[in-house]
């Protein structure tokens, strides 16, 4: 994306090499390992919960999907930018098919994490405020269906991106552009109203409102069961911090590639600015492990069990039973 704004000669070549070429690859490696570890631990907790006849939890499912799409997202714009900087030719410049796929999956994997994190926050808030919701709706089976439905809806909303991109007369590949005026107008509207306003601003407002409502409920909640209260508090704080980090790290990128793009594209060092905003976005996709490992009791013990090949459904003394309710 931002390569189209780049000067022919980098303004700060060393800084650009680190920000655009090296750090994205580090994020891909670290983010993949951390997110896959989170997915395995969350899946094991859901499975162990069913084995022990505890009430299943839907929040786990949303977090599993969040970690998965964050992992896939690391390999889109992030990897394309890194390869382009290190080799002089990005993936999107090598093949028209690759160009179209990255156009679609790049935005697709930016939109899904926002929605899944929003759903996890809303789900937790409703569980605190409504016992009926907790009994009837907050179930893994329902959450799986909702996540699949969300993924299907975004396929429909984002699929027109596959029509962008074409091979020019000189043989070069022009990504995110089209000779069709209608598609160009649709893409411009998509970037502003769907990508920025709806998927960023509206979703962020919902996250903030849900977090505030969860805090209010926790303050008013009677401490009849101290363990349950602390568990709810810990998970709610974790989701609130995840939302705050996601908003702070992704909003600069949304603004740089939409309303601020005309101001930045001709400025000195624009290449580094756009790359840095991309890097912050994908840093947000790599922080799930940090929040889960700090906030979820027994996370490290469960993760350790992965390496010593213990069955998560066993009743061995010392295995943690704390789960996301």
Task: Outline the structure in words.
Helix 2 (59-87) runs parallel beside helix 5, helix 3 (96-129) packs antiparallel against helix 7 and helix 7 (226-256) runs antiparallel to helix 10 (288-295). The protein has a single domain, classed as Rhopdopsin 7-helix transmembrane proteins. It contains eleven helices and two strands. Mean pLDDT is 83; it is low at 1-8 and 315-323. It has a two-stranded antiparallel ribbon. The chain is mainly α and 325 residues long. It is found in: Membrane. It comes from Didymodactylos carnosus. This is G-protein coupled receptors family 1 profile domain-containing protein. Keywords: G-protein coupled receptor, Membrane, Receptor, Transducer, Transmembrane, Transmembrane helix.
- Cα gyration radius (Å): 21 Å
Number of strands: 2
Order of helices and strands: HHHHHEEHHHHHH
CATH architectural grouping: Up-down Bundle
CATH fold description: Rhopdopsin 7-helix transmembrane proteins
Cα(first) to Cα(last) distance is: 41 Å
| % residues in beta strands | under 5%
Count structural domains: 1
- The low-confidence parts are 1-8, 315-323
Portion of residues within helices = over 70%
Q: pLDDT average, as an integer?
A: 83
Main pleated-sheet profile: 2 strands, antiparallel
How would you write the strand order of the largest sheet?
A: 1-2
- Which class of secondary structure composition applies to the elements? mainly alpha
Number of helices: 11
Shape: globular
Name given to the CATH homologous superfamily: Rhodopsin 7-helix transmembrane proteins
Membrane topology: Multi-pass membrane protein
GO cellular component, one term: plasma membrane
Main location: membrane
Subcellular location: Membrane
């Amino acid at each position: 994306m931002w390569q189209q704004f780049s000067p022919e000669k980098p303004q700060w070549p060393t800084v650009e090499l680190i920000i655009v070429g090296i750090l994205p690859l580090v994020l891909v490696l670290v983010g993949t390992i951390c997110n896959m570890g989170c997915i395995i631990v969350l899946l094991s907790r859901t499975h162990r919960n069913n084995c022990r006849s505890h009430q299943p939890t839907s929040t786990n499912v949303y977090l599993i999907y969040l970690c998965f799409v964050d992992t896939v997202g690391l390999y889109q714009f992030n990897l394309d930018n890194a390869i382009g900087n290190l080799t002089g030719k990005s993936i999107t410049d090598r093949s028209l098919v690759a160009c179209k796929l990255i156009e679609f999956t790049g935005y697709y994997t930016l939109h899904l994490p926002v929605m899944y994190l929003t759903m996890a926050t809303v789900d937790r808030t409703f569980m605190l405020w409504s016992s009926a919701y907790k009994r009837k709706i907050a179930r893994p089976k329902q959450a799986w269906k909702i996540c699949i439905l969300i993924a299907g809806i975004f396929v429909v909303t984002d699929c027109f991106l596959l029509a962008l991109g074409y091979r020019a007369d000189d043989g070069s590949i022009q990504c995110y552009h089209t000779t069709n005026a209608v598609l160009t107008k649709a893409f411009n509207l998509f970037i502003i109203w769907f990508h920025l306003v709806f998927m960023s601003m509206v979703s962020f407002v919902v996250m903030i409102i849900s977090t505030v409502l969860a805090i209010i409920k926790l303050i008013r909640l009677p401490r009849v069961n101290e363990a349950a209260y602390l568990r709810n508090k810990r998970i709610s704080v974790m989701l609130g911090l995840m939302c705050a980090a996601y908003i702070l790290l992704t909003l600069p990128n949304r603004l740089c590639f939409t309303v601020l793009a005309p101001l930045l594209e001709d400025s000195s060092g624009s290449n580094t600015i756009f790359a840095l905003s991309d890097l912050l976005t994908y840093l947000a996709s790599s922080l799930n492990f940090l929040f889960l490992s700090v906030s979820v009791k027994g996370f490290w013990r469960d993760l350790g069990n992965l390496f010593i090949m213990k069955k998560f459904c066993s009743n061995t003394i010392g295995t943690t039973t704390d789960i996301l309710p």
